[in-house]
């Protein structure tokens, strides 16, 4: 299948470097926090539990914020994502930087380093991290993404975000939604569809094209609602461009 061939080809570029160890990435030196705050901890299960044979999307959830120390209210919300037999990893800025600078990452996405020079806000940084961590580890993010390992759609979104950052005239004029967020998602979708031979009348400068969703089963764009994975914001009875939607538990 074209998608599998693309993923295999891209991942082969990093054969000389090991995939980053997730536990090492999220390992934190933060053991104490200021009064009123506590460190957010990780939950780890072995691969045999979170990624058994035959399952494409591992039962791993990645969450990010600038600091690991948080209030009890925030920790309570994070704890709601600790589903049975699911690993939960919290990435602070230190962990994100480790992933960005890892040799494996740099060999896969050599232009990322230049794009990061144009990052001047946390939202943009988190956007790029989100595509990257989902691509490398094939996991669920607490935003709206879930993917199998090495899905080229995630690579397209990251590449679009990086190119838009590199083309920024004034890095202090930030528009994450357009440069690296939903705008990059949409254009990445369009590029991906073109490469796999799916026709669309979408255009990168047009409004969000409904026909993009015709490949949702391939892209695996989902949101985690409790222990069940549902397609983002799509009611089971809705149709767009005569294309019916169906949601299923993964």
Automatic annotation (TrEMBL):
Magnesium listed as a keyword: no
InterPro entries in alphabetical order: Och1-like
This protein's UniProt keywords: Membrane, Transmembrane, Transmembrane helix
GO molecular function: alpha-1,6-mannosyltransferase activity
Transmembrane region(s): 128-146, 212-232
GO BP term, pick one: protein N-linked glycosylation
GO cellular component terms listed in the entry, alphabetical order: mannan polymerase complex
Name listed for the protein in its UniProt record: Uncharacterized protein
Source species: Fragilariopsis cylindrus CCMP1102
């Amino acid at each position: 299948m074209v998608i599998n061939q693309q993923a295999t080809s891209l991942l082969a570029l990093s054969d000389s470097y090991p995939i980053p160890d997730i536990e090492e990435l999220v390992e934190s030196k933060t053991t104490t926090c200021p009064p009123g705050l506590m460190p957010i901890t990780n939950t780890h299960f072995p691969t045999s539990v979170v990624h058994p044979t035959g399952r494409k999307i591992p039962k791993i959830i990645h969450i990010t914020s600038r600091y690991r120390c948080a209030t009890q209210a925030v920790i309570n919300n994070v704890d709601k994502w600790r589903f049975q037999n699911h690993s939960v990893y919290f990435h602070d800025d230190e962990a994100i930087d480790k992933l960005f600078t890892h040799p494996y990452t740099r060999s896969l996405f050599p232009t990322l380093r230049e794009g990061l020079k144009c990052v001047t806000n946390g939202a943009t940084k988190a956007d790029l991290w989100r595509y990257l961590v989902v691509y490398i580890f094939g996991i669920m993010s607490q935003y709206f993404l879930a993917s199998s390992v090495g899905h080229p759609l995630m690579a397209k979104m990251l590449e679009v975000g990086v190119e838009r950052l590199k083309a920024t005239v004034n890095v202090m004029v930030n528009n994450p939604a357009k440069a690296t967020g939903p705008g990059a998602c949409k254009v990445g979708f369009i590029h991906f569809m073109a490469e796999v031979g799916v026709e669309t009348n979408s255009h990168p400068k047009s409004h969000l094209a409904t026909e993009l969703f015709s490949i949702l089963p391939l892209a695996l764009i989902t949101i985690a609602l409790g222990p069940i994975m549902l397609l983002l914001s799509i009611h089971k009875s809705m149709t767009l461009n005569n294309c019916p939607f169906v949601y299923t538990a993964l």
